[in-house]
Structure formats: C-alpha cells, structure tokens
Amino acid sequence: MSTITVLGLVLLILMVLVGGKAGAQSFLALILNFGLLYLAIVLVAFHFSPLIVTLVVGMLVLALTIFMSSGDDLSSTVAFIASAVVLVVLVLLIVPVENWALVQGFGPEDSEDLEGLSVLVGIKFVQVTTATAILSTLGAIAEAAMAISAGLSEILEQHPQVSTTALLGDGIAVGKQIIGTTFNTLFFGFFGGFLALFIWFTGVHYSFGEILNDKIFVSEILMILFAMVSVILTVPITTWVMTRAVAGQRKRAAKQENN
Amino acid sequence: MQVLKMKRGLLWAWLIAMVVGGILVWGTAHDAAFYRDPIMQVTGVTTGKTTKETDDFHNVDSQTKQVLSGKILNGKYQGQHLTVSNVYSYSRAMDQKYHVGSQLFVVVHSRNGQSLTATAKDSKRDTTLVFMVWLVVALLLLIMQFSGFMAFLSVAANGVLFFLAIVLNGSTQGAQVLWIFGSLAVVFAALTLWLVIGANRQMLITFATTLGGTAFSIIVALLVFHVTHERGMYYESMQYVTQLPRPLFLAETLLGSLGAVMDESTDIISSLFALKRERPELSANQVFKSGRQIGSTIMGPLINVLFFIFVADTFPMAMLYLKNGNSWGYTFSMNMSMGVVQSLISGIGIVLAVPLASFLASRFMDKKKVTA
C-alpha cells in the first residue's frame, strides 16, 4: 500500500475513535473536498472560467465543511450564510489586488520545474492565481464562521432573551478569543509550506528589495494576508447574520403569539 | 453622550487609519530612490503585432510585442529617457503586460550616444504588498482592538524568529534543518501561548498538549514511512528545494501542524477551564468527556484549513501539467501528493491532540490535586 493510503487509514481510524460518527463524517467531508478541488483544476484546464468555477466549488466546499460537521441547525445555517457572504466580499478584494500585483503564473524560481513544459496554454494565469488565492482561504473562512456562530448560539442558549445589540458585542468578544490562535494556524500553515522558498532566498542571497518585489514571494505573502482578512471579516459578518436570524425568529414567534 | 463620544472616537480611528494607509501607499509608489536597481516609469506604450502560437498539445496562445518609453526614476541614470521592448502572451504565465504608469525594474546594458539600451526585468510590486499589510493591520486594530494588537504582535514575533532560524539554517548548509526547526517549534509554541494566554497553569497544559500532539504526529508519520517504504511519495516533486529534501519536508510538516494543534488545544483547554469555573463539582472523567466532545467538533474544520493551504497552492502547476498532456494520476503524483501527505500527518496530530488535551486538562487543572 502507498504511504498516502496508510496515512489516510490511520487518520480515519483515529477520527472515528475520537469523534465517533462525527469523526467519520468529517473525514468524508475532507475526501469530498479533495475531489472538488481536483475537479476545479480539471474544469479550468478544460477552459471553464476560473472565477466562476472557483465560486461554485467554493460554495460547495463551504456547505460540505459546515453541514457535515456536527452543530445545531441555527449555528450551521448562520455559519454557512456568513461564510458565503465573506467569500463574495473576498472575491471583490482579491480580483483587483491580484490584477494590481502582477503575480500571475510562475516566477524565475520555477524555471527548473517548468523544464519541458509549455507555458503558452491559452488560459489567463491572472485568473488562475486569483482562483488559487480564493481556494486557499476556504478552510479558514469555514472554521472561523463555525467557531463564531457556535459561540454565539451557546450564549443564546444560556441567555435566550439577550438583545440583538448585546449580541453584536458578544460576537466581537468571541472573535477576540479566537483571533490570536487562528492567526497562528494561518502563519504556521503557510510558512510551513514556504520554508523551502525562504531557504532559497537566503541561500541565493537575494537583497531585501529583490525579495519584496519577487513574484513568488509577493504572491505567497498575499495569500496569507487574504486569509487573515477573511478571518477578520468573518467575525463581524457572522455576528451580523446571527443577529438577523435571531431577530427574524423572534418576529415570527411574536406573530404566532398574536395570532 | 457617552455613546456619541465613543462613536466620534471610532470615526477618528477609521479616519486616521485611512490617512496612514494613503501615505504608505503613496510613499511606496515613490520609493524608487531606495533601490539600487534602476526602475523605469512607463510614459508611453506602442503595441506591435500579435502572432498566434500553437504548441505540441494544441494549446492556442498569442504573443504580442510592445515598445515602452519612459524615464529612469533612480540611480546614476535618473531622469534619462529610454525605450524598452517587451513581449507578452495571452496567458501571461511568465511575462508581463505593462501600461502607462507601470513601474518596472530594468537592466541597463550600455549607453550609446543619447539613448540608453535596456531590457525589462520584472514589475515593481512593493506598493501592493504594503497596501495589503496595511489593510490587515488596520482591520485587526479597528475591529479587534487590543486582542488584535496581541495577535499581530505574536505573528510579528514569530516572523522574526522564523527569519533568524532560516539564517541559522543557511549558515549550517541545511544539515541541521530538522533540529533547528524542531527546537524552534518549542520556542514558537511557548512564545505564542505566553502572548495569547499569559503565564499560568492553563498555558502550561496547552503548551504540553501542543508539543505532545505535534511530536506524536511526526512519530506516527515516521512509522508509516518505515512500514510503507515511502511508496508514492515523490520528494523530487517538492518546489524550490536547495538542500536534502526529506528532513526539509519533515520540518515543513512539523511547522504546518504546530499552529493548528496549538489553535485546537487552546480552544479545548480554555473551554474546559471555563467549564470547571462554572461547575466546580465536575469530576475529572466528566471534564475529559466534554473535552472530547468539543474537540471532535472542531478537528474536522481545522484539518480542512491546513488541507486547503497545503494543496490549493499547487493549482497553477497542476493545471499546467494537465494542459501539457499528462494523465490525471501523474499530475496528482507530481504536484499534490506531498501536500496531501502533509495534510494527513497534520490531521493525525490534530486528532491526537483532542484526547491529550482533554486528559491533561482533566487531571492537572486542579491545583490541590497536584500538590496532594
């Protein structure tokens, strides 16, 4: 058996042992997410618009990740709506910034890997790089939205009559608790992935100015920064969606009482 | 009145952030004097003819010539006018289309008579970078205030440590990469948890869980590598490798899972401490059980975070492989297999940290129990 199969089996067994049915579901979500990601690449290679493919795949990934993890209905629904809103806002930020930064495609550091490959493939790489940046933030958006909405629904459970203005403050308070550690997840996740690149920069003695304008470096750092923006935006947006949902619920309840 | 004052304060804060951002962006757009390499500002573009290109795999693309005229902004050629020719393709994977107003680095070859001859090297990108850094810091401070500042501080401190470690790695020619980044992981974890939680018992338990979870995942990974003889792992597919790939890969994985395991154990353990404060009568076993429950809801999404970071990054190269007539399987092996292995190893660490965090928190939370 290959290493990937064995590691996958070990992960599945551990997830079932620790989380039971929820663990098995999360594992299934992970596999489906991989399938969706690969599907996105294949579709773009078949000349479907990278942005539309990314938006559709992104929504599916968010839905899968959020609804296949355990959680009550209200908090899952709120988390999904909020993360979808964040995704749209993020696209509006990433598209102009990627066009401005001119970091599409590959840099001189990639030339060894590109040997023997034709790069003139007739697909706009600005859009491919934009799609990459959006996809890499999906996990972080889903995680942050779920954490905030779960925290808020717990507060609602303990104090069912809390006012919507107070709930707004609570959301920011929950966000403050998670922001420090979430940032570190992103920092280490990305920097772990780029370790080889940074070692390259010091090994080949790039100057500070060269690094700051390097295509690959800027593109990678922009990805971290997009992920951080998405996590920060998730906090107020999830809180706002939750207050709307609660206000709607209360209105309906009041109407029923009047009838 | 109080509310009005607060609102006005907030308005001022947003206004100041905007002004600072404007100054930073304007400043980096005019910082050519700090660079040693000559920078050219484009003032005129004439577009030449476009030729159609078809490669061996029937991919249709086009290449267009453009002649850029402009002046040098810095260095000994400052103020001199020059023209540079440039070629860009429709897909623009390795080239660049410049517009009036673009700033780019050029390599000046010689001076014959009045005009300079030079070739375009690469675009100037520091303005975009500074804009995005400003956006993150401003949003962080305006929305999260003090907690945002602490989060920023811990990322900045870790960034400095990371840089020092890379320099140290370079000075040892990469022979000690796993030791350097392994011991760095310990320092990273201690520093971050101290900044986020503070120096107390809760921090110690979280610290122990973080190290334990990460170490276990690496041990499990090494065992699996040994049993399967690393079949299906293509170290040669790793990008930008300048030293022995295997220890480098392990160091990358170690760092990648460290942050997520730390995130998760912080969440579990702080919830358990809060639970115990509210209901001190809970027994150690009950605390362990609720820890497992909290952990099993957050582990899935966390594994996902790392999965998308590790694997989405391979999108452009994987697509290029497919467009160059490679099979789906080969494209996966050469681009995504290492990222998937990394996500799986981190996932194992994240899952193992759940019982570890619950166990350590349930046994060592009470001060009395430890001293007794």
Please give the structural blueprint:
The complex is a heterodimer of chains A (259) and B (372).
Chain A: H1 3-19, H2 21-45, H3 50-67, H4 73-101, H5 111-114, H6 125-158, H7 164-203, H8 208-213, H9 215-258
Chain B: H1 2-29, E1 39-54, E2 60-72, E3 81-89, E4 103-112, E5 115-123, H2 126-171, H3 177-196, H4 201-228, H5 245-278, H6 284-312, H7 315-323, H8 328-364, H9 367-371
Keywords (chain A): Membrane, Transmembrane, Transmembrane helix
Transmembrane segments (chain A): 34-67, 79-97, 117-142, 186-209, 221-242
InterPro entries (chain A): UCP031503_TM, YibE_F
Quick description:
The complex is a heterodimer of chains A (259) and B (372). By secondary structure, chain A is mainly α. Chain A has helices at residues 3-19, 21-45, 50-67, 73-101, 111-114, 125-158, 164-203, 208-213, 215-258.
Ends distance of chain A: 65 Å
The helix/strand order of chain A is HHHHHHHHH
Poorly predicted sequence stretches spanning 5 or more consecutive residues of chain B: none
Q: How many separate structural domains of chain B?
A: 2
**How many structural domains in the coordinates of chain A?**
1
Strand content of chain B: 15-25%
Q: Beta-sheet strand percentage of chain A?
A: under 5%
According to DSSP, the number of beta strands of chain A is 0
Helix content of chain B: 55-70%
CATH topology of the largest domain in chain B: Multidrug efflux transporter AcrB transmembrane fold
Structural class of chain A: mainly alpha
Measure the end-to-end span of chain B.
55 Å
Number of helices of chain B: 9
Mean pLDDT of chain B: 90
What is the typical, i.e. mean, pLDDT of chain A? Answer: 92
Please provide a written account of the structure.
The complex is a heterodimer of chains A (259) and B (372). With 259 residues, chain A is mainly α. Chain A has one domain (20-105, 123-258). Chain A contains nine helices and no strands. Chain A is globular. The model of chain A has no long low-confidence stretch (mean pLDDT 92). Chain B is built from nine helices and five strands. Chain B starts with a helix and ends with a helix. The mean pLDDT of chain B is 90. Chain B is 63% helix and 15% strand. Chain B has helices spanning 2-29, 126-171, 177-196, 201-228, 245-278, 284-312, 315-323, 328-364, 367-371; strands at residues 39-54, 60-72, 81-89, 103-112, 115-123. Chains A and B meet through helix 1, helix 2, helix 3, helix 4 and helix 6 of A and strand 2, helix 2, helix 3, helix 4 and helix 5 of B.
